[in-house]
Amino acid sequence: MASHERDPVLVADAGSSSLHLTVFANDGTALASYDNASAPGDNMSGQLRDLLRYAPAPMAVGHRIVHGGPDLRQHTLVDDQVRDTLQLTADLAPSHVPPALLVLDAARELLPNVPHVACFDTVFHAGLPTAAREFAVPETWRGEYGVRRYGFHGLSYAWALSSTAELLRRRPGSLRIVIAHLGGGSSACAVRDGTSVDTTMGFTPLDGLVMSRRSGAVDPGALTWLQTRHGLSAQDIEEALNHRSGLLALSGTSGDTRDLVRDRAAGDERAALALDVFTHHCRRGIAAMAASLDRLDALVLTGEIGQDQPEVREEICAGLGVLGVTGGLLVPPSDDDVAARLVSPPEATVPVIVVSTGEARQIDKETRALLREA
Q1: Strand partners, 73
Q2: 10, 39, 104, 106: which has the fewest C-beta neighbours closer than 10 Å?
Q3: First and final CA of the chain: distance in angstroms?
Q4: Residue 193: which region, alpha, beta or left (left: phi > 0; alpha: psi -120 to 50)?
Q5: Is the pTM value of this prediction over 0.90?
Q6: CA-CA distance, 68 to 263, in Å (whole number)?
Q7: Catalytic site residue 121?
Q8: Among 298, 302, 299, 249, CA closest to 278
């Protein structure tokens, strides 16, 4: 085994509709990977075995867990007590945490003698200022029930921050930037001096910007009205907001912006509406995040849409002149594998930077860092 291939780490990223497994070498090189476009199921152990047949045996496993809840505020080694605590957070992100726990359980059973590390998207936002963290709801809800802003996409934000700092040749702790993670789930985050100070997602990953199949922010009065006037149950509403809303609901055909850009060009008015609503909410969210900063060193776009959809990037940035952001963005080559690239025109007051999605690499980094400290 080559020296750079020593100490491989297996990274598991399980979502509501996908599974990504990657084995990383100690220099960040991907040694092996397994991708499945469906949610983890009963054959999880078999899928792990398939990967490990041709991949080097991992010395640790890093697991992406979207929600750490009120008790797990740092990335942590998984033991039985932590596993029990994770079960209590499952209903806070019902589309994300249960699939991740399926993978965690299968991996712990298959690899019982290596450390397993839970890496949380909520950790990046653990130090949110009180004014950004607290909701104006009864004290019992906040104190006893733990209703507060948690924020998500933290692993993506951490990767985007370090990549942006490297591109700009600045220390992460010196930067004041807005990062927008735009993909199947979308959110924006204000970063001041390397720390999250506000974000658009709240108690769950359902809040904030319009998403592929999730609604984003909706007036809670509309939801109670649907219950009392039309008899919808809490389960009906949750299912609709998480799976039948967003771009899919607005367009009637697809939650994928690539489809919607194509359909709009062919004259589809509902596709045009969906894109208009999406980009409007993105601009509004980005501007709201900028209000938490006293200067804007850069606007950073990441996630599948932020990285791969130049038409959508352009529409968002062209409407942010009030922040010093302009359109006329450059379009990097489609095969560009650079981690971070400046795409704003030379005359732009505020640079716009596109960062390749790097959540798996960030989990690898966090797992190794935690094991060094243990």
Answers
A1: none
A2: 39
A3: 26
A4: left
A5: yes
A6: 39
A7: yes
A8: 249
Q: In this structure, what token pair is assigned to residue 99?
A: 């699939």
Cα-based angle 179, 182, 188 (whole degrees, multiple of 5): 35
Q: Are 160 and 355 within 8 A, CB to CB?
A: yes
Which two tokens mark 235?
Answer: 């389960």
- Whether 184 and 304 have beta carbons less than 8 Å apart is answered as yes
Q: How far apart are CA 35 and CA 122, in angstroms?
A: 24
DSSP letter assigned to residue 137: S
Please, which pLDDT band fits residue 21 given cuts at 50, 70 and 90?
Answer: very high
Question: Which residues neighbour 148 within 8 Å (Cβ) at sequence distance 6 or greater?
Answer: 70, 133, 134, 135, 142, 203
The answer to whether residues 356 and 329 touch, using CB atoms and an 8 Å cutoff, is no
Separation of alpha carbons 264 and 266, rounded Å: 5
Reported as half-sphere exposure (CB side, CA atoms, 13 A), residue 265 has a value of: 7
CA neighbor of 354 nearest in space, from 282, 314, 306: 306
Write the DSSP string, 226-257.
HHHHH---HHHHHHHHHHS-HHHHHHSS-S-H
Helical spans, DSSP H, in 25-76: 44-54
Residue 155 has pLDDT above 90, yes or no: yes
Distance, in Å, from the CA atom of 74 to the CA atom of 95, rounded to the nearest integer, reads 22
CB of 323 within 8 A of CB of 296? yes
| Residue from 50, 91, 121, 364 carrying the catalytic annotation | 121
C-alpha span between 369 and 374 (Å, rounded): 9
What pairs with residue 117 in β-bridges? 62, 77
Residue 19, SS3 per DSSP: strand
- What domains appear along the chain, each with residue ranges and CATH number? 3-120 (3.30.420.40), 169-359 (3.30.420.40)
Q: Which residues neighbour 335 within 8 Å (Cβ) at sequence distance 6 or greater? A: none
